[in-house]
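Job type: complex structure
Entries:
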Amino acid sequence: MTSSKTIVLRSSDGATFEVDEAVALHSLMIKHRIETGGADSTTIDVPEVTGNTLSKVIEYCKKHVEAPNSDDLKSFDTDFVKVDQAVLCHLAKASYYMNIKGLLDLSSKTIADMFKGKTVEQIRETFHIKNDFTPEEEEELRKENSWNLFV
Amino acid sequence: MSTTTTVNPDDTTIPFSDFPEDVQLCILSFLTPPQISSFACTSKRFSTLCRQDSKLWFSLCHRRWGSKTHIHKWGSGSITFKRLYNTLQDYQNLIGFWRLSKTQSQPRSPNSIPNNPPPLVLFEWGPFFISGSRVLPSGNGSYDVVKSPFLLMGISAKGEIVNYLQPNSEIRLDSEAVLMGSGLGNELVSVDVNHLGESHIIIEERVGFGGMRNSNVMNEDLIGVESGSPPNRVTSEIYQYFANRTSPVGERRQRRREKEKNGNKKWESEHFIKIVNHSPTSSRPLQGLWKGICEDAKLDFYLVAYDDIGGIACRKIGDSCKPFSSCAPVFWTSNTTFLESPFSSEEEHIYETREHLLPPGDIPSSQMESVSRMLYINSSYDLVLPGLAGPTSVNPHHVEGRIWEYGDGTIGFGFLRDNHIVDLKHIAVDGCLLDAVQPL
């Protein structure tokens, strides 16, 4: 039985994680690095992602690579995103940089759910958006966009 | 508003602008248009982002319908994705099975083609249009069905809804041919699909344009030219069709036109009702669209529906559009509690002495071991009062029957008055037609 190759992933803050190659390949970014990196690419730097987030990402990849058809995959995903909002945001960014579509869609959808039932001001607060409209501009925009509701 | 407490970067969401734009678009692609509108009001930067039709509204369309249709190709790629989103949202409701309700009862115009339109219709996603197909028995004596496209619904490059219909139900609408514009000039009819609520549509001939007789016009309408072409004679003709719906004319001329319009109508309007519950569920295992072969050796389509008081009724599709159609269902029952096997020897006898009405070559399951459950049914709504003979009551032996459910979920039914079993199969599973063949 061939021993499965392992890869070491190094986060921005120097934390290292040893993972099976098959799991690492779930990230298309890592797949590309390995395929173009030559024979010595056993350690891969992921400077866009901190250790905490990388650990979570690896957990996701492990589950999806090792048991992709399991019945509890859906509940795994649901529980996986029950995290602090900050962690969720970092997961979204990490999945984008590491090119893991499933995780990007999952975290994006969960962030999108945070819009439900919120007013404009509440959206600003949740997502730290600075209001740079004058009151007149804001009124104009509100009128313009309210038409969208009926189109 | 937050005060001057130090914000621990791990506690709150990051500012939305910290996300790369692709991530922003991915998040926004899950929102509804009203939520997008609210988001657009939050800041100048995001207002601009939300105006970017090709990025944001494309993402919204792709998220919802990218797996079902080619988002880029609708409207020759010339309409805004925002417009496309609204259109596809309307069209989404059409997808599925509809049954013909009674056809419009207006005086038949002399030019219209006499039709006995088949009663079951299926709407599906096409690459850049919605296609409507009639679903018919194949006529080869088996469970095979034929899907015969008759309606194409799309959007012109100008953003107008454009629908083409083949009025002769004997002829299939060949979408490839329409799009190639090959020799279809006078046959196709331009129609409107109007909604009366969510479950009722009327397909009516669009009068006033003289129909789409020019095949070049059809071709350019739907697929147009990939790279922008300069306005030409054909394009300006298209524009005229849509821009000048009514032109100022004298009264006498107007009356003559009206008469011409109605006289020239090639196609009778058709009403369709949506078949909302077209498949069985675990709590309603008999629900949905079925097909079976009757004593006349022809394949028929049936719809079994559950009512609000725990009963079920089965009707032939197409019964509701015959004039003076009887109200009698094929079968019904108010008691949907199944009897489980093993069954009494009396019931075994009833089942095993029957002839299954099957296509030649199909092997029937004549042993009662193949039946997992059964139900008692009636074929008439008239009161059945046991022991009471007379003209107002019905002989119970005449109307009583059985449904036998097989291990694979299909069913057979029969009545005590004869010794047949009609074995029913599903017409579709997960929205896909079963046993579809090419027409003979």
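Summary: Chain A is about 55% helix and 10% strand. Chain A has a mean pLDDT of 87.
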